[in-house]
What we know:
B: mainly beta
Amino acid sequence: SQQGEEDPQALSIQEGENATMNCSYKTSINNLQWYRQNSGRGLVHLILIRSNEREKHSGRLRVTLDTSKKSSSLLITASRAADTASYFCATVPNSGGYQKVTFGTGTKLQVIP
Amino acid sequence: NAGVTQTPKFQVLKTGQSMTLQCAQDMNHEYMSWYRQDPGMGLRLIHYSVGAGITDQGEVPNGYNVSRSTTEDFPLRLLSAAPSQTSVYFCASTWDRTGASPLHFGNGTRLTVT
């Protein structure tokens, strides 16, 4: 069953611009994670935000979490062509368990040089 | 560090054939999973394992078998391939049972069943 829904489904921006992707989910969570998938490759973990956190930074990445709205956003600042990839949010429910991680359908980001 | 290694990268099967997708990790992770990725559906859990000798079903287990004889290896067997099993398959592992740590993924096996 799908928990996270990303928005937009696809995003095309110029190099140097910021990219924002949103994730909405349905049930209470323990944490929310963002992953990147380059074409033909596996998912790579980017950042994890816990349910008691509101914002987290990692390099050019900024993640926010609003548990009252059951939503999260991923901001990539000063985008580069190498950021071209699909981005997925993944949620872990309150009951926990790595096997209960649920992935959204992803946002496909294209950064034009 | 190799991380999670999946073989083969590509496979074409005829309906009714069987095959095994291989997955190996060198991080000494107890917890491993198999997912399939289909367009517009995200990743769906097929089977998972909490350690050598212990496996359980995920969301979409029908048509697949797994075993875990060692910590390192977690093969996925397709018993009698069907066109509906055309997909990209990912193996993942983690050291943390609770889900509070990242999953490490292999680069996938793209399977086509004709």
